[in-house]
Amino acid sequence: MYSKIISGALLGVRSLLINVEVDVSSGIPLFAMVGCAGSEVRESKERIWAAFKNTGLPMPVSRITVNLSPADMHKEGTSYDLPIAIGILESAEIIPAGNSGNILFLGELGLNGEIRTVRGVLPIVTEAAKKGIKECIIPSGNAAEGAIVPGIIVRGAESLTQVLEYLRSPSEEKLPREPACSFENDLSEDSSTEYEEDFADVNGQDAAKRAAVISAAGFHSLLMTGPPGVGKSLIAKRIPSIMPPLSRDESLEVTAIYSVAGKLPPGSTLIRKRGFESPHHTITLPALTGGGSNPRPGAISLAHRSVLFLDELTEFDRKAIDSLRQPLEDHEVHISRSRYSISYPADFLLVCAMNPCPCGYYPDRNRCRCTENTIRKYLGKVSGPILDRIDLCVQMSPVSVKDISAGKKGITSAEMRSRVVLARIAQKKRYEGTSYRFNSEVNGSDLEKYCPLDEKERSFLGEMSDRLGLSVRSYHRIIRVARTIADIEGSDRICHGHILEAASYRPNDEYWKT
């Protein structure tokens, strides 16, 4: 007998519905699986055999053929276990024909018949709802995640036996539906989200705090340099606390990425807080950008709508650093391999920290013993194209013991966030109806339209450019940063002081010698 069960597969952070076709016929006992199945999928027959035996279900002593359609698409993962098992039970007439119609099934089977969590439930259930599927049966650990999607009934199952009983005689008592996730009291632009880290705990470093506000307000990438122990990592970890909370759409995007990566804890729903990804400098290229033999999002995608912090920037592999160039421009990472070509979102705020030299104390020649050649080679690990994409460079100095012992509390994250929100509102109004969201994204050809300068300021910036030998990219960068500074201060026009401050965030010539 033939049966067709609906399941789903991942394509990056998108998904595609899969038809699991099962045919049980007379002949030499055989379990054949076709449809471009990967190793994890092919192993499902062993899990299904054991699950049937340990739950007292009869495995048909027949020729079993399973086809995963479309057959030309490579299938990976363990989520096909449950739909294949249901297809076998229906084909063997243990489940009444038709009871599994218009239901999506996902889940990994344990050898004892337990249904275990799988990754990528949110995008697959979303696609099922779009295609008119009325119901889905997924692992109980993924039920809260699936319930985020409106317009589809989500049922969380703990065992194969529980699903079997429900399909034999459907009722709410046998397999209750998961309550729909409510968006009430969520994620408005002006709502606050509690973070463990607060800028009030950071003594001194007012210049770096100011740069952090500008960075978060206009989504400008930030590089902090200075000797060890000045608080570079301390400040970076607190930047998410001054960013506005995730909007509803942003929260869904981030949650989908974490779902595909398998990073959502069982029972969790929406991700509400801005994230902070801080990969170690030994990270491999696939772990940073995504991909691999069984493709998953990398660290830059997990930092989507949040902060990607690269501590000890010069210790990262040069290829890893240069791999950020395209995502910083396109806000996506494209991965092409022999078996697949996928894209992951990667709209992140890049924050970097580094020492000015191998020992960390340059330009203090009383403590630094590095040669000019050593320093040049050390700084040369950061390529020019990447440095050109960093809008704000801040040099940090040690805080005096006197300031620390005074115990004076600095500006709080809430106060800093209010300034960021003010600038974000101004940008939202300015770029309404365009593809731009932040000042940092404006193309050079549109700067005159969205970030105009009065004649006096234009002349001043021109003279500065000639005197400092600024490139066109640096000239435009100063205008973008100045526009963000003006937004923070509530100014409709870019003033002389805004340009001066923006110019002060250029890379320090004393460091970046050629």
Task: Explain the overall architecture.
With 514 residues, the chain is α/β, with parallel strands linked by helices. The chain has two domains: 2-168, 2-Layer Sandwich (Ribosomal Protein S5, domain 2), CATH 3.30.230; 199-424, P-loop containing nucleotide triphosphate hydrolases (Rossmann fold, 3-Layer(aba) Sandwich), CATH 3.40.50. The chain has helices at 39-42, 44-54, 81-91, 121-130, 143-146, 160-168, 206-218, 232-238, 248-261, 285-289, 299-302, 318-322, 325-330, 372-379, 384-388, 401-406, 413-430, 447-450, 455-468, 472-488, 496-503, and strands spanning 2-11, 14-25, 30-34, 63-69, 103-105, 108-109, 115-116, 135-139, 153-157, 222-225, 276-277, 290-291, 296-297, 307-310, 332-336, 341-345, 349-354, 392-395. It has a five-stranded parallel β-sheet with strand order 11-14-17-10-18. Strands 1-2-4-3 form a four-stranded mixed β-sheet. Helix 17 (413-430) packs across helix 20. The model is unreliable at 184-192 (pLDDT under 50).
Helical region count?
21
Query: How would the global form be characterised?
Result: elongated
Q: What structural class should be given to the helix and strand makeup?
A: alpha/beta
Mean pLDDT: 90
Q: Strand fraction band?
A: 15-25%
Q: Using only CA atoms, what is the Rg? A: 28 Å
N- to C-terminal separation? 75 Å
Layout of helices and strands, plus pairs?
Elements: E1 2-11, E2 14-25, E3 30-34, H1 39-42, H2 44-54, E4 63-69, H3 81-91, E5 103-105, E6 108-109, E7 115-116, H4 121-130, E8 135-139, H5 143-146, E9 153-157, H6 160-168, H7 206-218, E10 222-225, H8 232-238, H9 248-261, E11 276-277, H10 285-289, E12 290-291, E13 296-297, H11 299-302, E14 307-310, H12 318-322, H13 325-330, E15 332-336, E16 341-345, E17 349-354, H14 372-379, H15 384-388, E18 392-395, H16 401-406, H17 413-430, H18 447-450, H19 455-468, H20 472-488, H21 496-503
Parallel strand pairs: 3-4, 5-8, 8-9, 10-17, 10-18, 11-14, 14-17
Antiparallel strand pairs: 1-2, 2-4, 6-7, 12-13, 15-16
Helix pairs in contact: 2-3, 7-17, 7-20, 17-20, 20-21
